[in-house]
Amino acid sequence: LRSGTKQLRYLESADLKLEKITVKPFVSVENDDMPMLRNVIVELKRLIPIKLFKKKCFHDFLLDYSVEQRRILRNIYKQIEESHMVGSAIDEIVVVLDKSKVYWALDELENATQIIRVGIDCIRFVLDIFSESWIVYSGDFAFFPAPWSTSSGDVDVSTVRWMAEGILCSIVNRPGIAMNDLKLKYSFALQPRFFMDLIKLLERFGCIVLKQIRSIPANLNSPFLDEGILHLFFKIIFLIFYCFLQLFYNFSKRLF
């Protein structure tokens, strides 16, 4: 507890006030590949209209798909159903399918509110009948709460910026830090699922790069395993902070 409190105090005092830094590029060229803040943050906001719950039973839902698609959807739905309220992670959905087909089926089921995206250790999926233990209600909507969620289910952008800034500075201080090491460092404040959400946000905006490197551990492992370790690298120091500032320079404006 003392160690966690000490790290929390360090995190509170590690605010570099990046939003106060003004960057004036010499060439006025916009990078069209960079996603807008609105498009990035909206992925962290998942409001589900309550009226969509149980709008269509699973058997009626399958009627809109071909015979082959029904087989895929039924197999995945059955495995998620068997996990009850614990939910199934993508890696736990054991089906002889391409990953692209699994992601397609999960998107179709989620868009139809047949399954709900939840999870703490990782992203998990549960049936709507088992979602009561995971979601909260606000007016006509339901949502899975995150550290940056407001009481109405909106995203507090300043909280996202503060947490993402802390993670980014940790990567700058230790280039090539292993993913698990960084995840452990912030485990006192961020659950693994939400930590990965921020990592993906920084990666998508070009602030960091994830590389899988095979390193030789000090302890002897099985010779049949050939697994790499994910390491986090930052780009050129000026570039990463320029990308970060472009992302959050107007975070005080109301986005939603």
TrEMBL record:
Transmembrane segments: 229-249
Keywords: Membrane, Transmembrane, Transmembrane helix
Coiled coil segments of this chain: none
GO biological-process terms attached to the record: 5S class rRNA transcription by RNA polymerase III; transcription initiation at RNA polymerase III promoter
Alphabetized GO MF terms: DNA binding
GO cellular component, one term: transcription factor TFIIIC complex
PANTHER family in alphabetical order: GENERAL TRANSCRIPTION FACTOR 3C POLYPEPTIDE 1
Name used for this protein in its record: Mab-21 domain-containing protein
Organism: Dracunculus medinensis (Guinea worm)
